[in-house]
Every structure is written in structure tokens, then in C-alpha cells.
Amino acid sequence: MILKKKTGHWFYPIAALFLAVLMWQLVVTLADIPIYILPSPLDTVKALLTDFGMIARHLIATLYASLLGFTLSVALAFILAIAMDSFGVVKKSLYPILIVSQTVPTIAITPLLIIWFGFGVLPKILIIVLMCFFPICISLVDGFDKVDGDYLRLFRSIKANRWQTFYHLKLPHAMVNLFSGLKIAATYMLMAAIIGEWQGGTDGLGVYMVRTKNAYALDKMFASILVIVLISVALIYLINKVASRVNHWK
């Protein structure tokens, strides 16, 4: 029964994706659409294989900035979420600012960061932090707030201090929220890095995409998009696996 449920869970999205790719291939083939307008799935896979070395080199640069920015986002989110949970005045002061900050388009901030910090990896990392920090932080704060009041009173009755209450009660209860925020941030991570590379990077998949677009090599551009999708799916899968182990008690 469990195997059947797992099979059903994966079957429908895979079948839908297969049909979409098949339709795409048929439309391009039957309509004889030029490769510089819309490459077919076969053209995309062929481009990925023939230009794999170049794509891999740019992918390493993108992943380096992405993982570094993601790690900084998690650390900063934990620090600020704990501060907001511990001190009411911090939460009242910063929470509205965090919400309003998300109304500013990241693509509008990117040129400013490049002007201030140059064309290196730093602006790219800052863009990733700006995009990934928010969902992690807000998810943690929400998780801390949702701890049952009866549990809090129980911990007070046994004279648990603030650190013990946080470590043994609030943090475990916030894990589900944390991993939800991590999954959202993981989908933003590569996108943020590529936005930075579009605006003024020297290497990375974003730079590769701009160069292939300018050369009308859309098959190579689609190949880089395919790589981004596969990496993002792998990250979500990894986070889900870790979450299932950490939250097994749920």
C-alpha cells in the first residue's frame, strides 16, 4: 500500500511533464520552427552534451556564490529570528520593515550593488542573501510563535531558563517551519545568483545565458535553463530528505 502511494505520488507529475515535453517536440518538428526561435527538447539535450564543459565551468561559479549566500542567509535568519523572539521591541521594530523590504524589486537593487561593490562575487552574494534571508527568517519567527502555550507554562513550572526553553521546546517545534522556509529560499537561490550575473557578472550561468542569447544559440540557452531546473529539483529533494529525518517525531 505504501509503495503504491509513493508510486502514485510521482507518477502524475512525471506523466504530465513527459506529455508537455512530447507536445513541445511535436510542435517544433511539425511546424518546422527554426532552432534560433525555439529549440526542441532533443536540440536542448544535444546542446547540453556538446557544450557540457563550458556549462559545468559556469555552473561551478554560480553554485559557489549560491551556496555561500544561502549559508549566510540561514545564519542571519537564525540570529534575527532569535532576537525577535527574545525581545518584543526588536520584533515590533524590525518585522514591519522586513515585510516592506520585500516590495522592493530585487532587479532594481542589483545595479546599485554592482556600482557600490564592483563586478566580483560580492554583489551576487548580497543579492542571494536579500532574496533568501526573508522566507527563512519569517518561517522561523512564525514557528517560534506557534509553540503551544501549555508547553511554555510546563517549562516555566519546572524552572527551565530561556535557553533551555528555546533549545528543548521552541527550536524543535520550529523545524517544520524552518524547512518550509528553506525550500522557498532554495528556489530563490539560483535565481538570485543568475539575476546578479545578468546585470554585471564575469562568470556563471547567467553570463553564459546572456552570451548564448546574444549569439542566438537558444539551444545552449535552453540547456542552461535545464541545468538550473535539475539543480533546483535536486536541492528541494535533498531538503525534503533532511526534513523527513529531522522531523520524524512529527
TrEMBL record:
Keywords, in A-Z order: Cell membrane, Membrane, Transmembrane, Transmembrane helix, Transport
GO cellular component, one term: plasma membrane
Location within or outside the cell: Cell membrane
InterPro entries in the record: MetI-like (IPR000515), MetI-like_sf (IPR035906)
CDD domains given in the database record: TM_PBP2
Membrane topology: Multi-pass membrane protein
Residues covered by the ABC transmembrane type-1 domain: 59-239
Family annotation (Gene3D superfamilies): MetI-like
Transmembrane segments annotated in the record for this chain: 12-38, 58-82, 94-119, 125-144, 174-195, 221-240
One of the protein's GO biological processes: transmembrane transport
Family: Belongs to the binding-protein-dependent transport system permease family.
Protein's name according to its UniProt entry: ABC-type nitrate/sulfonate/bicarbonate transport system permease component
